[in-house]
Amino acid sequence: MYPVLFHIGAFVIPSYGVLAALGVLAALTVALYTSRKLGLDPNKVWNLSVVVLFSSLAGSRLLLVIANRSLLRHHPLWILSLAMVHHPLLAAIGTLLALVVAVLYATWQRLPFFRTADALAAPLAFGLALEQFGALLSGAGFGTGTHVPWAVTYTHPLAARWSDAPLGIPVHPVQAYVGICFLFIAFLLLFLLPRRRQNGDLAGIFLMAAGVILFVTEFWRDPIGRGAVFGGFLKAPQAAGIIAVLVGSFLLLERKSQRISAPEPTSTVEAQHTPPDVQGPSHA
């Protein structure tokens, strides 16, 4: 495939970085739309998304620097290549940091938790879809060997250096499987946006669908670097997928306090509408 999109002199523009950046821009753009549809302040949702993204990236890369501090002391320029490192453990740590920061920032800004989670579900699905297509080009999270007609073969040396992708061996394009599934989920969530029964429904559907995708597609993903739990019975991402399904199921439970009895406001002036999950003072 194509781990390098193009060169500017000696400067390399990686495919993964470009697709991931496009995914971020797409997610932020869709978040502006969904937040308006759900009566949230788009500026607050935008700021929340940016803060969470920065915290996730900075935290996971800082951990990588700490873990490799002895090597970086002897080869300080290697720090420039840390952005090319992709590993499930880094993704897991980045996700946990993102969740913690999201809860803290949303609480500080008084954003309703369930409604904000619904607003971010479709944008996150779009972002993850483009990120996976970038991983397909770079070789990150490559699939198992196969002879299916749609198999991909990596030949670029940087695919092996950056992502440990096997060269010259046909493998499942598992990243494309995941990316297509997330695109489908994103459009489904946008379709369901005005049809929610309660706040938290879209977030629950996203988590359950994402968990199933993680669990199933891992069977076609090479086990190198994926981690193992329960004595090797499951890969670590599959365990994460099970947790996502359980959390999503919890969000879909019936909650009278989050029921939507009237159409969601499309205006950002929330003072004109009492949101279902934030009850204001009653007036005689």
- Helical percent range? 55-70%
Q: Main sheet: which strands, in order across?
A: 1-2
**What portion of residues belong to β-strands?**
5-15%
What value does the average pLDDT take?
81
What's the alpha carbon Rg, rounded to whole Å? 21 Å
Q: Can you characterise this structure?
A:
- With 284 residues, the chain is mainly alpha-helical.
- It has one domain (4-263).
- The protein has helices at residues 15-37, 42-67, 69-74, 88-108, 113-138, 157-163, 174-192, 201-217, 236-251; strands spanning 4-8, 11-14, 152-153, 170-171, 228-229, 234-235.
- The strands form three sheets. Strands 1-2 form a two-stranded antiparallel sheet. The chain has a two-stranded antiparallel sheet with strand order 3-4. Strands 5-6 form a two-stranded antiparallel sheet.
- A hairpin with a 2-residue loop joins strand 1 and strand 2 (11-14).
- Helix 2 packs antiparallel against helix 4 and helix 7 runs antiparallel to helix 8.
- The chain is globular and about 60 Å long.
- Mean pLDDT is 81; it is low at 266-274.
